[in-house]
Amino acid sequence: MAVAAVAVTGALAAAGCGGGSTGSNDTSEVEVFSWWTGAGEADGLAAMKADFEKRNPGTKFTNAAIAGGSGTQAQAVLASRLQNRKPPDSFQGHAGAELLDYIKAGQIEPLDSFYDENRLKAAYPEQLLQQITYQGRIYSVPVNIHRSNVLWYNPGVLKDAGISAPPKSIAEFIADLKAVKAKTKKVPLSLGAQWTADHLLENVLLGDLGTDAYNALWKPGADWGTPAVGKALGDFGEIMGYTTQEAASTDWQGAAKAVVDGRAAFNIMGDWAYGYFTGNAPNGLGKKLDTDFKYAPSPGTDGTYMWLSDSFTLPRNAPHRGGAIAWLKEASSKEGQDLFNPKKGSIPARKDADRTLYKGYLEYAFNEWNKPGVKLAGSFWHGVNASKKQHTDIDTAVGLFLQNKDVAKLQAGLVSAAKNSGQ
Ligand code: GAL
Questions:
Q1: What is the value of pTM for the model shown?
Q2: What is the pLDDT averaged over residues 315-323?
Q3: Closest Cα to atom 11, ligand 1: which residue?
Q4: Which pLDDT does position 248 carry in this prediction?
Q5: Is the CB of 310 under 6 A from ligand 1?
Q6: Domain boundaries, the chain
Q7: In ligand 1, which atom is closest to the CA atom of 344?
Q8: In CATH, 2-144+310-370 is 3.40.50.300
Q9: Following DSSP, what letter does each residue of 118-184 receive, concatenated?
Q10: CATH fold for the domain made of 150-306+380-419
Q11: pLDDT band, very low/low/confident/very high, at 283 (cuts 50, 70, 90)
């Protein structure tokens, strides 16, 4: 985290943007923009919305969520709205490097007085505050902490393949994928839309390189051309050979569902999958941990929390600034976070949440995040340590790899993505 924090703070310091409140204080409405339309995430948002409406009876809540896992569609729509100076009143953005692009473009307001009025500085972990701070000013309100490095698996399929415990290293993982393929008719590793391959890539890099070397990849001037990165990408290529892509239209949910339905052995996905698996029907799948599915740290990453955080912003010239402030108050409150996160499959960003609400996998996540000496790595795909430019360039290189399966070309693409990252 320190590494990522230094990189982000350094880049923020170079940007030189000012503050000042803009927009009207209109509280008649609030348009909240996110990409939470699926089971679990939409349910979490609905729970916060209901609490918001109870507390703010005069403010109409407009849910402007746009479908598409990891914001693939929503972020494009948002970029054009911001460009055309038609911002929503508040939008979802990831803590870390992703926020930088909005700050550099002067698209969001600092929230220092909001933090002071609501005594928020003491409520959040210091290392998280660093990821949303630029030149001493704070720019967003984190609502949760997600874990990216989770391996979800079907215990029955592993048993059929003769696998007694989940893999602890990338080498063991590859051996297990091979066993599933040889001994069962099931998909070894399910994959969804293209971005889920990017998500897999960050997990393979972390698992193969280790936390320090993974974090070093996001420092300015990092070298992606090393044999160690080449080896990890070779492993990524081999692992991709055991994947079956669900229809892209079913996004990450289709791939995650394949595991709990017993069609696939493994899926690597963030813990929003937990909200989807365990949420009540008809939206959620109503599945049971340990019976229908199990979890483990993604191979080679035990002891490291590859984290990301969803946060909400105050766009410059928000049409209903008063409504936006009321929403930020909800999203930053202990009550709001404790309503949202158990459904979302994440743990609260605040330090004072009610631990007893976090059961099953979420109890594990809670304990891991708070474990003394836990190592932290930032999820590049979910905004922590890659600029939007680098993020897009990596996605392009991965997209080409899906076509040509050429590991050397993938590495060359990632080397140039890092060189041109603008960080
Ligand atoms: C992440 C986001 C999560 C979840 C996930 C799947 O980028 O931080 O909250 O929505 O995408 O869409």
A1: 0.94
A2: 97
A3: 70
A4: 80
A5: yes
A6: 2-144+310-370, 150-306+380-419
A7: 9
A8: no
A9: TT-TTTS-HHHHHTTEETTEE--EE-EEEE--EEEE-HHHHHHTT--S--SSHHHHHHHHHHHHHH-
A10: D-Maltodextrin-Binding Protein; domain 2 (3.40.190)
A11: confident
